[in-house]
Amino acid sequence: MDLRDNSILEAPTVVVEPPGPKSRELLGAQEDMETTSLNYPKYFRVAIREARGSTVVDVDGNVFLDWVAGIAVMNLGHNNPTIREAVEKQLDSIWHSLEIPTEVRVEFLKRFRSTLSFEPRVLFTTTGADACEAAVKIARWKTKKKKVIVFEGAYHGITAGTLGFTYQGEYKRFTPVYDDQAIRVPYPYQFRCKDEDCLNHSLHAVEEAIKLNADEVAGVMVEPILGEGGYVVPPVGFLRGLREIADRWNVVLIVDEVQSGVGRTGKVWAHQWEGIEPDIMCASKAIGSGIPISLVAYRRDLTDLPRAFHLGTYRGNPLGLAAGKAVLENLTEDLLERVRAVGEMMKTRFQEINEEISGGRMDVRGRGFMIGFELVKEEKRPWPEGTTAMIDSLFKRGVLMYKCGIHNNVLRFMAPLTTPEKLLDRGLQVFSSALEEVERRRTS
After folding, report:
1. What's the CA gap between 34 and 30, in Å, rounded?
2. Domains along the chain with CATH numbers
3. pTM for the whole thing?
4. pLDDT tens per residue across span 270-279
5. Left if phi > 0, otherwise alpha if psi is -120 to 50, otherwise beta: which for 366?
6. How far apart are CA 414 and CA 391, in angstroms?
């Protein structure tokens, strides 16, 4: 079956203004029984009945075009028949196995290893944050040092073991205790870089930080493209420069592919755009196609880890491994080429909308199906209110889109990689009309 044929091709279809009565009933029940700290129901006031491909149906019958994909999780679309078949087959045998080998575990490991240019050892974890925490532990174990170079705008999780490496300060106000052995340096954010040579300014800051803390730095942890920090694509040469610095100073290079990996940018892993080999790589989100699975891959020659180095009951769950094997098998070169080509078309169309409606004031950037649209006022002043208004306007028109960025002013396109062009065209039309409405409101 063609992976692109699973969507509801009539989307978006709004039959009752969301949230409809059935959605309101379920939202009310959830609000009564769950924590008040939930985030996404505040933006998407809807209850879901089913999801197929790049479309989501609510309990009132509205069909939404999904440009969120579970926050870059459903890369091959919702309810993908190939993934479903693999998971159903696994259900017939075993769905919890601790660390004891199963056929699906070994098959997944072989398939995963084939996606990398080096032969890794794999440590299974449970979430993206858990993978990043484990990666730092490995770097520290290898070097016997504590500090980690991280970047402005970075997001590596908000657990006690990762919160110090994440840039956004809002999360730190909830707990006074977290791993704070981080040294923060600028990410080469070209739209907001104050230095003309943004790339070398950032690389110089990394090297200086290591030089000043040579006896303490275990490694450098970096996202190939900033995720929660704003879908910021660094200049070509950034990852190669970090690789050279890490080699020169004998520190560990950790690449966090939790959001940028699994085909999202048009390569299986985003660091492959620069042809580098990380010492450690973190993966999660899309690799399980919605079934929680995450892992750390580290160079075989990097270090040996002792028994019980990083434990967790649900590490390497067989259902997630079955889904992951199917996901990786379906990341064919044809699909990746489509992601690259269609992604460039989408970026061009977003830029055309930007020029037509805002006179080119916004910043459009990205690779593949990882595209950011930064909303600003005059003189690049962040416009988070516009971003919130856009999310709401798109939602009412039947398109789900979410934000990111250190100023909460970036809309991010992270639709399933298999979204049909017909639906992408419709989504762009809705985006254009929503932006026109929000801009008109701003100037009125």
Report:
1. 6
2. 3-76+333-443 (3.90.1150.10), 81-329 (3.40.640.10)
3. 0.97
4. 999 999 999 9
5. left
6. 14
